[in-house]
Amino acid sequence: MTIGGDAAGLQRPAAVWIAREMQRRGKRPVLVALVTRSSAVNPPGEGRRHGPWLEDVFYRLRFR
Amino acid sequence: MSRVRLRLVISAWNRFWFEPAPTSTLALLRIALGLVVIAWTLSLAGDLFPFFGRHGVQPSPPRPPGSWGMLALSDGDLALGALYASLLVSAAALAIGFHTRVAAVFVFVCLLSFERRSPYVFNAGDHLLRILTFYLMLAPAGAALSIDRWRARQRLWVFPARPPWALRLMQLQLSFVYVGAVWAKVRGTTWNDGTAISYALRLTDLERFPVPGFVTQLPISTLLTYSALGIELCLGILVWNRRLRPWVLLLGLLMHLGIDWSIRVGFFSLAVFVMYLAFIPPDRASAGIVSARDRVLAARSRFGSRLLRGVEREAPTRR
Prior knowledge:
The complex is a heterodimer.
Chain A lengths: L10 H14 L6 E8 L15 E9 L2
Antiparallel strand pairs in A: 1-2
Chain B lengths: L2 H16 L2 E2 L1 H21 L3 H5 L17 H4 L3 H20 L3 H18 L6 H15 L8 H5 L9 E2 L2 H22 L9 H5 L17 H20 L7 H18 L5 H10 L4 H37 L1
Antiparallel strand pairs in B: 1-2
Helix pairs in contact in B: 2-5, 2-7, 2-13, 2-14, 5-6, 6-7, 7-9, 7-13, 9-11, 11-12, 12-13
């Protein structure tokens, strides 16, 4: 799921939820970064299934 | 239009929507839908609080104008747990036909509430389940093969005739789903140039089981792409032809099994298969149910007599 566009309001709650899950496992998060990881599927017949994976940080939330 | 022709049209319209038909098809569909909703509900168990809870990834539901749901009233953990349990119990009640109408209303409201609470986690298959439940809520779904019938001290293996208009709505829904799908696809690029299936089968994050490489290559994938469009168009239109219907539905069944094998589409295929049941002619459905019952009874009596023979053989040695 990409949390962008109409779902932009989900970015902060999702980051908070991830931090809380980390805390439950005994970790102390200082930064949660939400990243899109994408790769273009090549047209059929071009050998490789898809191109290189690209990562883009689209949201950061710092914790003290 | 002449008056005679108008009368013919009106008569055909009335026959299509309102001429009473045995409720065996509806009973099969109700049982199947109830079982699928039970599986759907169980599949949510692990993600219930992260997806729908106040402390999950979406603390408050989106509120587009006019939308409603039970979790808009209260979305605390207790309310969420109660809604989940209600859905599970009412889906089971729907499957066995216990207070069928009330169960169908509960299932519809619960499904709607979950889908409104976190719309981002659902796909078309989930919406299709909710739509089918809506139609079932309007239908005499408990008239046959149900606890309701047994409680009313009526013969269980009789399928009373009722106007089939709610079942007709489900059939039309199936037609619209496929014609709409074809319409949406032909307006794109990859379905027109024959590469759509190749792309779909190479989406790593949706892949269930890998398909052989040659399937995603051009001659085969082009054939599969145009075949899928053709099958969907046939399902939307030719399914109304009595002679072609079984073949068209068989093609659809194979197509969706193929999709489900290679791509993780959640409950989409199961929801579609439930919808296919709406096209089983009532007399066929009645005969099939009675024959299945007879086979079960025969197997049970064979098993019973074998058990009895075993007991008789063992009896002397025990003495």
